[in-house]
């Protein structure tokens, strides 16, 4: 045990003497938190810019557009179908609603279809629009079912519905989605930094072998197991520091609700730290030298973090990719936190 503690102390002293390494260890979690804050910190109740592609000129379709134009915090503009992809990718529009041919007919028959909502921002946009739009369309469909094939009855009921007035009492609730998104994004960056930090620290094993220090240590009472355990100990200390910095920055500097007790969050992240160390040791075991280890960690860490949703929201990925992500430990951690 004394030998392991001595090796841990020796390795930490070498790391702390290197100001560049110390700066990287401390600054990486802060940088990840700042990036997340820059993305979600100013996300308030803004105005959604919604485009409408109307492929028919029927009263039901036109009234549906008027309904959307009357919603608060929604700016509606008509666009051509050929412009949809460009306006979405350039972020000029948050979403596009396409009313295809026979939309009005399907609503009149009581079976609404031929409507499509497109957005690259996922449920953040589509969920808000769907909640209002689908409720409006379902009400008209219900009128259609009651009126049946009697067009005169439908016209009277539809006109009454359009002219009806409702009293609504509104209350403002705290939006917790921003804190959740910021926490998840910060954890995504922290996962990546933890994996790279663990891989770099485990890479010292190969460097010690390359400069023959490892073999000189083996000539003493220190064996290979103690050397590996000391590396794991150093890894846990460094990763724990990064975890603490990240959580303290989130809670005390940005006053973000992390959605779980501090101790629970620490415990979950510490478990992932062990997984990160295990992955890094596997990479070292299959590497002949430090150069191949660096190449291998880039080939493993970056793609798996990308698939797991560490860099962008998991919900916007195709279902096939989401199924692959469910096998990755990064995804397990993000699901646990969210």
TrEMBL record:
Annotated transmembrane regions:
21-40, 187-206, 227-250, 262-286, 298-314
Example of a GO cellular component annotation carried by this entry:
ATP-binding cassette (ABC) transporter complex
Q: Which InterPro entries match?
A: ABC-2_transporter_component, ABC2_TM, ABC_2_transport
Membrane topology label: Multi-pass membrane protein
| MF terms in GO | ABC-type transporter activity
Q: Where is it localised?
A: Cell membrane
- What name does the UniProt record give this protein? ABC transporter permease
Please give the organism. Bacillus cereus
């Amino acid at each position: 045990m004394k030998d392991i503690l001595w090796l841990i102390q020796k390795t930490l002293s070498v790391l702390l003497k290197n100001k560049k390494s110390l700066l990287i260890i401390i600054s990486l979690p802060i940088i990840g938190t700042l990036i997340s804050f820059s993305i979600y910190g100013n996300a308030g109740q803004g105005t959604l810019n919604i485009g409408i592609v109307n492929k028919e000129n029927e009263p039901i379709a036109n009234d549906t557009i008027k309904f959307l134009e009357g919603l608060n915090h929604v700016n509606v503009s008509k666009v051509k179908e050929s412009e949809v992809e460009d306006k979405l990718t350039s972020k000029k529009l948050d979403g596009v609603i396409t009313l295809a041919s026979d939309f009005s007919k399907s609503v009149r028959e009581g079976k609404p279809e031929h409507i499509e909502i497109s957005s690259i921002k996922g449920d953040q946009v589509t969920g808000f629009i769907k909640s209002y739009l689908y409720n409006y369309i379902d009400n008209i469909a219900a009128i259609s079912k009651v009126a049946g094939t009697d067009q005169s009855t439908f016209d009277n009921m539809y006109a009454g519905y359009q002219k009806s007035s409702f009293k609504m009492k509104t209350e403002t609730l705290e939006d917790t989605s921003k804190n959740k998104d910021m926490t998840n994004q910060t954890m995504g960056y922290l996962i990546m930094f933890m994996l790279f930090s663990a891989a770099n620290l485990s890479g010292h094993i190969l460097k010690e072998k390359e400069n023959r220090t490892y073999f000189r240590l083996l000539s003493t009472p220190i064996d290979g197991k103690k050397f590996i355990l000391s590396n794991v100990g150093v890894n846990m200390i460094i990763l724990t520091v990064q975890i603490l910095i990240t959580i303290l920055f989130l809670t005390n500097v940005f006053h973000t609700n992390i959605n779980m007790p501090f101790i629970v969050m620490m415990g979950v992240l510490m478990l992932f730290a062990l997984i990160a160390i295990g992955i890094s040791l596997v990479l070292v075991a299959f590497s002949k030298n430090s150069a191949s280890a660096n190449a291998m960690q880039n080939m493993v860490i970056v793609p798996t973090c990308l698939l797991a949703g560490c860099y962008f929201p998991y919900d916007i990925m195709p279902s096939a990719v989401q199924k692959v992500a469910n096998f990755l430990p990064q995804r397990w951690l993000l699901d646990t936190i969210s």
